[in-house]
Amino acid sequence: MTIPQNPHSDGVPPITDPRSPAQAETLAATISAEEGTAQQLPKMRPGLVFLLTLGVFGVYLAFVTPIAISLAIRVNFLAPENPEYLGVVLSLGSIAGLITGPFGGMLSDRTRSRFGRRRPWLVGATILGLAGLALMAAIPSIVVLTLGWIIAAAGLNLAANTFLTIQADRLPESQRGKVAAITGFATMVAPVIGAVLGGIVQNQPYVLFLLPGAIALIFVLIFTIAYKDADSRSLTFTEKLTVGSVLSKYVFNPKRYQDYGWNWLGRFLFFFGLTLSTSYTAYFFSSRLDVPVEEIGGVVATVGGVGILATVLGVFAGGFLSDKIKRRKPFVLGAGLLFAAGSIVTLSASDLTLLLVGALLCNISIGVFSAVDQALVLDVLPERETDAARYINIIQLANGIPQAVAPLAAAGLLSIAAAGEDKPYWLLYALAAVFTIASGFVVLRVKAVR
C-alpha cells in the first residue's frame, strides 16, 4: 500500500468553487473520502489474519488479566483493610488510556520509519505495557502499583488501538466484519484464560503480571515480523505539532465527517446503556432473588458463563453475516433493540430463569454490536491515509467515557431515586433500554454504509 505524502496526493483533482474557500475545502475532502472508501484493498491472507488475532489476544491477555483478577489479588495483599483502593487504581488506569490514546495515535500517523507507521508503535506500546506490569510486580507498594498500572494501561491500550488501526489500513470492506468477529472472539477468551492463570499463580507476583505481558510481547513480535508495513520515511507534513494543535486533534468536526460523527454518538449511547445495566448487577440480582450480596457470586458467575457463550454467538453471526449480505446498519439497529428487549426481560425477572434469558438476549446483542460496529467504524473512518490512528483512538473514547461516567451516573441516580435500602435497580435497566434503542436509530443516520 502506498502512503501519500500529503492529504491531496491521492489523485483527486484540485477543486475550484466560486462559493467560498471553506465550501470548496469541504467538497474536496468529501470527494477524497469517497474515493478512499471506494478503493478496494487486497484481502488479508488467512495466515496474517491468524497472526493478527494472536497479537490481539496477547495484548488483551496482558491488559485484561490485571483488571479481572491480578490487581484485586495484589491490592488485597498490600492493603487488605482498604479494598476501595482497587477502584481508584482501575479508574486512574482508565483515565490514562483515554488521555494518551489519541496523542499516541497522532504520533503513529506522523511516524517516519523504514518499518512503517504502525509497527514501531505496536512494539513500543507493548514494551511500555510490559514495563508497567514489571513495576507492579517488583515493588510492594500501593502507590507504585497505581503508577505501574497507569503506565501499563496507557501502553496496552495504545497497542490494542494500533491493531485496530492496522485493520483500518489493510482490510477491504468484504473482510472487516469477519476479522472483527475473529479478533472479537480473541478478546473474549483472553479474560477467561487470564482469570484461570491468575488463580494458578496468585502467590507469585512476578509470574502473575509478567507472564501475560511476555506472551503479549512474543505474539506482537511474531505479527510485526510477518506484517509488511509500508516504508514511511518519505512522508511529509505541512502542520507542526504544537500544544494547541495536539489538543485540537482530540476532537473532530461532526459536520465535516457526519457519518463518523453519527457512528461515534451511536457507539457512545450503546456503551453508556450497557455500562448502566452492568454497574449494579450483583445488587440487582440480590434484590430479585432474595439472596445476600455476599452470596450472589455463584449466580453472577453462572449468568456470566451463559453471557460469554451468547456473546461469541453474536460476534460470529453479526460479523460474518454483515459481510455476506453487505449490510451494517440493520445489524446495529437490531443489536440495540435486542439489548433493550433483554433489559426489559431482566428488569421484570423474579427468578433465575428469566435473569438467564435476559442475559442471553443482552449478550447476543453485545456480540453483534461489537463486531458490526467495529466494521462500520472502518467503513466510515475519515482521513484514512493520513490520520487513521488518530480517528481510531477518538472513536475509542466513545467506549471509554461511558465506562468512566456511567457508574457515577448510576450511583447518583440511585441516591436520588431512593433514600432507603430498597434501591430501584430496575430503573438502570429501563434507562439502558432507552439508550441502546437510541443508539441503533442514531446509526441509521449514517449515509455512506447500508
Automatic annotation (TrEMBL):
Keywords: Membrane, Transmembrane, Transmembrane helix. It is found in: Cell membrane. It is a multi-pass membrane protein. It comes from the Bacteria. Gene3D superfamilies: MFS general substrate transporter like domains. Coiled coil: none annotated. Its main location: membrane. Residues 48-450 form the Major facilitator superfamily (MFS) profile domain. Residues 1-21 are annotated as: Disordered. Pfam families: MFS_1. The chain crosses the membrane at residues 48-73, 85-108, 120-143, 149-167, 179-200, 206-227, 264-284, 296-319, 331-349, 355-381, 401-420, 426-444. InterPro entries: MFS, MFS_dom, MFS_trans_sf, Na/Gal_symport_CS. PANTHER family: MAJOR FACILITATOR SUPERFAMILY (MFS) PROFILE DOMAIN-CONTAINING PROTEIN (PTHR23528:SF1), PTHR23528. This is MFS transporter.
